[in-house]
Each structure stands twice: as structure tokens, then as C-alpha cells.
């Protein structure tokens, strides 16, 4: 029996094996997170995180899946993407800081 698809900790949708996916360091490598905890995300969700937050913000305030989901822009994105199929791809908007 095949294992179920992992769940994306940002949008809470399954990540199909054939969907683009990324490993996200909860504390960015440049901020001391090399070898630290990571999570598997849809690639589109990972891109949205880095389009929204700086490495410093990620290290200081958004270093857990719960904190990422609580960020207003990421929460809005997660609500939007949750209505799309798990393999959905789209361009990520430009950085807004």
C-alpha cells in the first residue's frame, strides 16, 4: 500500500509526488539554520513565503509553520491556494515589503 501524500504545512493540502515541491528551512541557512529543522512545501507555497518575508523576518518571527500561517498575507494566500488542486502552479507576485 502506498503511503499518503505529505501535507503542506502552509496551505494544508496534500503534496502529490509529481507536484513541484521544495524543502524550506524554518530558520534560513544564512541566519544560522543550516542543519536545522525543515518542512516540505508545495513549490508555489515556498515561493510565496520568500516573496513575502525577508530572511531576517523568517529567522526572528516566522520560524514555525504556525507563525507562517498566522502572517496576514500568507494566511490570505493559503486560503486562496486551498481552493486549487494540489498540483496547481501559478506565477508568484513580485516581492511586497
What can you see in these coordinates?
The protein is an alpha+beta fold. It is built from 4 helices and 2 strands; from the N terminus they run E-E-H-H-H-H. The chain has helices spanning 43-52, 55-61, 65-70, 72-81; strands at 21-25, 38-42. Strands 1-2 form a two-stranded antiparallel ribbon. Helix 1 packs antiparallel against helix 4. It comes from Aliishimia ponticola.
Query: What class do helices, strands and sheet pairing give?
Result: alpha+beta
Mean pLDDT: 90
Helical percentage? 25-40%
Q: Report the strand count.
A: 2
CA-based shape: globular
What separation lies between the terminal Cα atoms?
45 Å
Taking all Cα atoms into account, the compactness measure Rg is 13 Å
Count of discrete alpha- or pi-helical segments spanning 4 or more residues: 4
Helix-strand sequence: EEHHHH
Strand order, sheet with most strands: 1-2
Beta content:
5-15%
- Low-confidence spans: none
Write the layout of secondary structure elements.
Blueprint: E1 21-25, E2 38-42, H1 43-52, H2 55-61, H3 65-70, H4 72-81
Antiparallel strand pairs: 1-2
Helix pairs in contact: 1-4
GO molecular function, one term: zinc ion binding
Protein name: HNH endonuclease
Pfam families: HNH
Task: Summarize this structure briefly.
With 97 residues, this protein is of the alpha+beta class. It is built from four helices and two strands, in the order E-E-H-H-H-H.
What are the key terms here?
single chain, 97 residues, alpha+beta
Amino acid at each position: 500500500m502506498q503511503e499518503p501524500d505529505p501535507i503542506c504545512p502552509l496551505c494544508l493540502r496534500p503534496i502529490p509526488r509529481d507536484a513541484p515541491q521544495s524543502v524550506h528551512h524554518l530558520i534560513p541557512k544564512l541566519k544560522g539554520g543550516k542543519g536545522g529543522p525543515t518542512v516540505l512545501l508545495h513549490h508555489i507555497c515556498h515561493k510565496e513565503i520568500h516573496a513575502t518575508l525577508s530572511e531576517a523576518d523568517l529567522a526572528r518571527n516566522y520560524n514555525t509553520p504556525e507563525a507562517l500561517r498566522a502572517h496576514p498575507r500568507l494566511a490570505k494566500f493559503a486560503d486562496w491556494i486551498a481552493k486549487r488542486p494540489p498540483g496547481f502552479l501559478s506565477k508568484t507576485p513580485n516581492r511586497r515589503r
